[in-house]
Amino acid sequence: MTAEQLKDIIRAGLACEHLELEGDGRHWFATIVSPEFEGKRQIQRHQRVYATLGARMATDEVHALSMKTLTPAEWQQAQAEGAA
């Protein structure tokens, strides 16, 4: 699976304001910013992303996915702190 294919799958199932993805075709790291994460704990956010991937995780199409999941406000704060 390519990075663009994986991004398309995530975007199709989750409203993303920002999505970065790095990886080697099997092992991925994603930064995902979504308003759907508002009021959710980290584990709930990750479960939401895994739900968009469905069977692709179970069939090993996506072997490993590490994530940083942020709300738009958290993303904005992280960007401001990084620019300082």
Please give a handful of descriptors for the protein shown.
GMP Synthetase, Chain A, domain 3, alpha+beta, three-stranded mixed beta sheet, 4 helices, single chain, 84 residues
Structural commentary:
A hairpin with a 3-residue loop joins strand 1 and strand 2. This protein has one domain: GMP Synthetase, Chain A, domain 3, CATH 3.30.300. The model has no long low-confidence stretch (mean pLDDT 91). The protein has a 3-stranded mixed β-sheet. The protein has 84 residues and is of the alpha+beta class. Helices cover 46% and strands 24% of the residues. It contains 4 helices and 3 strands, in the order H-E-E-H-H-E-H. 17% of the residues are buried. The radius of gyration is 13 Å and the shape is globular. Belongs to the BolA/IbaG family. This is Acid stress-induced BolA-like protein IbaG/YrbA. InterPro entries: BolA, BolA-like_sf, BolA/IbaG_stress_morph_reg.
